[in-house]
Structures are given as structure tokens and as C-alpha cells.
């Protein structure tokens, strides 16, 4: 019985130039995507490690596509191997998922040697993202406040008086919660509201305290808090 212990190197199926082009272009295109993400990010959840991951992911997908090639067996083996991986970090924003799929698509195009497709897709999609960011497409500038009002629990029905004040100072409001606080001695009403043009949060707080026997009233806006 003859046993064959020889090792077969399949690297010859693609040249060094193929590898260099695929990984190099994946790196360059992922850099463009990462720069676009950084330039258009607005919230405070920016993560440098996430941007680094975008670049590495693009190159990694290109490498995987080089390995898989047109071999169906390798593709299924790869799916089985990657199925054991679990990612527990939650994506903070929905747009972050879009950038992940973008670098994956670019990496797949580079790894399968669709270099022109990878370049055009990167330029066009990143251009659309920058255009939407520059002209602030689909923004909805509706600023709402959260109003918290505490009233005595045993001092009668204060809700109609509170709502009269809200009618005077807001264009619309909605009761979203009622809670017993301070051992049941107070009731706290929580509203969402949109202040009328020219109405100041401080004025609303003062008017609310006038009808709640001086109890605490709070107006929470997007970035500041008026709490008297």
C-alpha cells in the first residue's frame, strides 16, 4: 500500500500580481469608504476601532474571495467555518450596517477581480453618501421636548390644570407616562410636547409650578435641561 504524504501548494492558481492588485485595491477602496464614514458621521458614537475594522474587513473579504474562487466546495466549507463565529457588539446606528455591507461588496469585487466594478461602485456610492450629507436630504427638523410634572397625589385632580398650561405653551402634546414618586405622596406626569414658536422652556416651567403647588417641573430638550 502506497501512502502519498506530499503537500500540494495551490498558490499557483493566482499570481503575485493578482494578490497584490486584489488586496491593494481593497485597501484603497476601503480607505475611501472609511474616510466617507468619518466625514459624514454626526453623532457622538464615533469609534476609531470601527473605522479600522471597515478597512480590515474589506481586505479580508478580498482574501476570502481569492481563496474560494469558483470552487463550490470551498465556498460551503467557508460558510460552515464562519458560522461558528459570534459577534456580540451591537451596531449603534443603522447606517453603520450599510458601510459594513459596502466594504464587503468592494472586497468581494476586488477578490473576484472585478476591479473596475469595485472602483466605480466605491466612487458612486460614497459620492451619494457625501451628497446626502452635504445637502442634508430627508431631514425632519421637528424638535420635541419631554415635560415632567409632579403634583400632590392627594390634592385633587391637577391634570386638567397642567394640560391647560400645555395648551397655552405647546403646539401639541401627548401623555406618555404616569408614575408615583416619593413614597406615593406625589404623582409625576410625563409628556412629549412641541413648544410654540417663541415660547421659552423656563416660562413653561414657571407656569406649570404655578398650578402644581410649587412642585417640581422639568422640561428636557435635545441638549439642555430647564429644571426649576
Question: Could you characterize what this model shows?
Answer:
By secondary structure, the protein is α+β, with helices and mostly antiparallel strands. The protein has seven helices and five strands; from the N terminus they run αααααβαββαββ. A five-stranded antiparallel sheet has the order 2-3-1-4-5, with helices on one face. β2 and β3 form a beta hairpin. α1 runs parallel beside α5, α2 packs parallel to α4 and α4 runs antiparallel to α5. The longest helix is centred in the N-terminal third of the chain and has 25 residues.
Share of residues in helices: 40-55%
Structural class: alpha+beta
Report the principal-axis shape: elongated
Average pLDDT taken over every residue: 83
Question: How many angstroms does the end-to-end distance come to?
Answer: 92 Å
Can you count the helices? 7
Low-pLDDT ranges:
223-228
Please tally the β strands and state the result: 5
